[in-house]
Amino acid sequence: MFQTVNRKIGFVLILFSIFFLVLCYQLPTFPFVIPVDADLVPKLLGFLLMFLSIVLFFSKDGDTEEQRKKRKIEKKELYVLLGVLFHLLVYILFFEFLGFLMMTTAFIISCSIFLGYKKWTTVIVTAVVFSVSIYLLFNYVLAVNLPSGILPF
User: Fold this and answer.
1) Alpha-carbon gap, residue 8 to 1, rounded angstroms
2) How far is 50 from 73, CA to CA, in rounded Å?
3) Torsion over CA of 6, 9, 15 and 19, rounded to 10 degrees?
4) Are 57 and 86 in contact, with CB atoms under 8 Å apart?
5) pLDDT of the chain, 153 residues: tens digit per residue
6) Is 100:144 a contact under the CB 8 Å cutoff?
7) What is the CA radius of gyration of the chain?
8) Does residue 48 contact residue 30 with C-beta atoms inside 8 Å?
9) CA dist., res. 133 & res. 144, Å (int)
10) Which DSSP state fits 129?
């Protein structure tokens, strides 16, 4: 049943889409009668994921030796992936306490330096401009409050 990688990944994604859809159907609905409720987009994405997972499961793609070689991750690249994962976990852990601006700026700077970018000024300016512009866009234009953390605004 699971001869190819596509079948294995497709099966896992089918299970994940079922789990996701079960959670989507537990979302509360608004008491007002509106055609588009808050659960519409997650349900559509869940069904799309299930459909594409089924297509992946039944796709006719055999494993060649070249594809197996491409899937093999070198030890150095694995350490880079684990380092970025560590940065993400620290970002998630301190996101609410320190706030969006501080954590996003620190994440972009530290992750960029970890990945080998040498131009510190470019990295710092990019991180600050990106973080501030996204914060202003969400908080003041879209009226979606992002965590301010220890900053007073």
Assistant:
1) 9
2) 28
3) -130
4) no
5) 677 788 889 999 999 999 999 999 998 877 776 777 778 889 999 999 999 999 999 888 766 777 777 777 788 888 999 999 999 999 999 999 999 999 999 999 999 999 998 898 999 999 999 999 999 999 889 888 888 888 777
6) no
7) 21
8) no
9) 14
10) H
The pair of structure tokens assigned to 119 is 């131009």
pTM for the model stands at 0.67
Q: Which residue has the tokens 């896992």?
A: 12
The Cα–Cα gap between 85 and 94 comes to 14
Structure tokens at 113: 């330096």
Q: Which of 47, 58, 51 is nearest to 24 (CA)?
A: 47
